[in-house]
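Database export, one record per block. Field names are fixed; values are copied verbatim from the stored entry.
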Amino acid sequence: MTEQISTPEALQVIRQALETNGSTPPAPLPTHLNLKGPIGPSRVTSMTGVFQPRELEGRKLEGERHIETLMAAIGSPSNPTYLDPLVVWWGGDRWYVVDGHHRRHAYLRAGVHTAVPVEVFEGTLEEALAFAVEANSKDRLPMTLVEKLDRAWFLTVTTDLSRDRIRRCCSVADGTVKNMRKVREGLAATGATQEHLMSLTWQDARDELQGHAPKAPVPDWRSKLVSDYERRLRKTFGSQLFKNADIFAEALVVLDKRFPAWLLEAPAFSEHVAANLDRMIEERDNPDY
């Protein structure tokens, strides 16, 4: 499934299809597409690693709540209410969602798989990437500052878009994009490949250029266990964890009053606490952050 491959691999798939088949979409341009069925001109698919700026891995509960709201608006699959059209782009051999990923998930989970309204975005791959950021910046589930910075970094290392274009579509300062280009060139001079640069967050890229030790890779067994715990929590509580985070925190304390100390001692938790505090201070003191 294309949604599950890495971002560098996904971009390579798209670029290869464009090189092989050309970029001209099939005529006439569609107004409705299916969400299931054979890959081709009658179905729209998703490549979230490329076209979804929002980092869902860190905001699954918020995304879940948003999808539930959309599902309620869609209603019954026998008589659905259609939402705003998905914005789709032709990638050489298939249509990709560039705006409307949560709507697509909501349709699928509501059982609405056919004749979903779409609107075609016509442009190059680079233009589609920029449009995806702009569209998501205006979405009901807005991007955080860190997500905007990470997406600006992504566009800086994967496209030839102008500095002003990246600044405008990601809503970041011109000085930030200028600094990103310096970091990109600095890391490239050390032999870093584009694939490696794409794997970095903006913070990781700055740290690497400054010579800080890279984060140790997470052991496979640990990743699997974390995924299992996350899946079971989400399956049991769904968006209630997001809606009632204070109650969840209190429940942990009732379970064992040592939980707050344990969490602060856990690297995954303490790093996020520290990063949030540092980011709030830097955002307050530095308009180009």
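Remark 1: Residues 267-285 form the longest helix (19 residues).
Remark 2: The chain has three domains: 1-141, 144-212, 220-285.
End of record.
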